[in-house]
Design brief:
The protein has 107 residues and is an alpha+beta fold. It has 5 helices and 3 strands, in the order H-H-E-H-H-E-E-H. Helices cover 51% and strands 13% of the residues. Strand 2 and strand 3 form a beta hairpin.
Length: 107
Amino acid sequence: MYVPAMIDICKALADPARLKILEFLHRPDAQCCTFEDRVCACDVEGRLGLSQPATSHHMRILVRAGLVTSEKDGRFIYYQLNAAAFAAAVEFLARFARPQKRPARAA
């Protein structure tokens, strides 16, 4: 994963509303238009108490960062987590959790 992609991901994760959206997409308890592994935008709005413009704004940022995919079906837009993007971000960040071996200094 390249640094510019991680910048977009970190910016997307830096907002509490977007973190709540991701949590909801991960474990939806929606009743309206959601089915299988996709969540309808109207369920995000209703569950989290966001307006339609606020939901669109936050979802656009999450989609642009690659953390969420979107699919339009008629007048509905369905969202789903992009597990591969999360795995790549974890892999990128995990390298900072390991001690770095530094080359020996010449005497």
